[in-house]
Design brief:
The protein is built from 11 helices and no strands. By secondary structure, it is mostly helical.
């Protein structure tokens, strides 16, 4: 297999695994499921990964869509929450998206699994989270230590708010959680 073809096949496996892991969790998905979703046979799995744990770490190492969009939004100005950041936060905490977000964001759907799977998964998750926080902190006012602390709080409010809103079976409570988190995130990020 040529190296470019091998890389494309690996990427296809990682994308399929990511979708399945976010939907069913680490324990709810097997190698056969992942390979079938990628339209490949199980035998091909081991040409790309040593184990399901390695594949899980690879899916967590993929750049978050939120960080990718922030990075693509142009140079940060550090003066106010601008460009792509505010619309992305609005999208993330929109009540209409609360049932879709776990399938879109591994920070929401896979945090508990990461804690159970092992060091490689934890390292990949940590690097992905750090990347997102760095992209946000570069786009908000304040000196680096302060901006970093506020970016960490904002990510925790976004992820935690969506996790709680997705888990409750009371629509009004879910909507109130998301609205409260959005208000606090914007205030935290726009503070001077």
């Amino acid at each position: 297999m040529r190296s470019d073809q091998k890389a494309k096949t690996r990427e296809r496996i990682v994308r399929s695994a990511g979708r399945l892991f976010r939907r069913y969790g680490y324990s709810g998905v097997g190698i056969d499921d992942i390979m079938a979703a990628a339209d490949l046979t199980r035998g091909g799995f081991y040409a790309h990964f040593r184990s399901k744990q390695d594949l899980f770490a690879a899916t967590l190492a993929e750049e978050l869509e939120l960080a990718r969009q922030l990075r693509g939004s142009g140079e940060p100005d550090g003066e106010h929450l601008s460009g792509a950041a505010k619309p992305l936060i609005d999208f993330y905490l929109d009540a209409r998206n609360r049932t879709r977000m776990p399938a879109m964001c591994p920070l929401i759907s896979l945090s508990a699994d990461v804690a159970r799977v092992g060091d490689a998964a934890g390292a990949a998750y940590t690097a992905t989270l750090r990347d997102l926080v760095a992209e946000i902190s570069r786009r908000i006012p304040g000196e680096p230590p302060d901006a970093l602390a506020r970016a960490l709080a904002a990510v925790a409010l976004c992820v935690g708010g969506v996790v709680l809103a997705h888990a409750v079976n009371d629509e009004q409570l879910a909507d109130a959680l998301l609205a409260a988190c959005r208000t606090r995130v914007v205030a935290e990020l726009e503070a001077r």
